[in-house]
Write a structure and sequence with these properties.
Keywords: Amino-acid biosynthesis, Aromatic amino acid biosynthesis, Lyase, Phenylalanine biosynthesis. By secondary structure, the protein is of the alpha/beta class. The protein has 9 helices and 15 strands. The protein is elongated, with a radius of gyration of 21 Å.
Length: about 280
Amino acid sequence: MSRVAYQGSAGAYSHLACSQVFPDWEAVPCEDFQSALEMVSNGQAARAMIPLENSTAGRVEEIYRIIPRTRLFVIGEHFEPVNHCLLALPGVKLTDIEEVASHPQALAQCHQRIVNLGMKPLATMDTAEEARQLSVSNNRHRGAIASALAARLYGLDVVHENFQDVMGNTTRFLVFARELMHQQRDPELSYVTSLLFTVRNIPAALYKALGGFATNGINLLKLESYMDGSSMEASVFHVDIAAHPQDPRMLYAMEELAHFARDIRILGCYPAHDYRSRL
């Protein structure tokens, strides 16, 4: 059976994303993002499912620092709705719960609910791991914020579905593999190309580097910058582009990019997820 690696415990939202994209694969939990990617690099897993950003909490900072150091490729994207559930031991009612534990981001996304119910928030390292620990405890006054999958895996009751303050909370995942998937361009499909580059140390370098995309009518879906770790002068840019590398417009834009940027690296080209058509 093929294997897909993810960060977190069984029942984590990354696990849920794996089950949606690779329903017949074995999902392998890992302690951290680096370990999940290394499983792919070492041939222990064929894919890694890694969260890049969340519509409420923003980007996953750690991932942007790991991606330049890995030699893996991005072969797909997945948008997973994050529907937080308030979980408790079997038979526990909402009015019994005095404190609720989960990852800090989950607590933040459910802050108003927690306040309105008069519960005490407790920060822990992992949503699914907190659900697992609750399942082996006898604490009937404690709840956990995690996924419905975690409830099923650990035999907990879902006391309150959609516990988050804002509906539509979504996480974007990238799928990593050892080999680049060469997508032949289909004019009827939409594609995303992800790439990294650094800009030359000249005035208006970033403006000039990206100018070719504007003049060729290509949309930039995402632009993130961060320091490369070796100095305060060089910035690395992560760009998601709504085009295929074989698109003639893209070829012209990449030529212009090469004049003003260095260390250009295409992470991958993949079909745009259906979620983008609803944005």
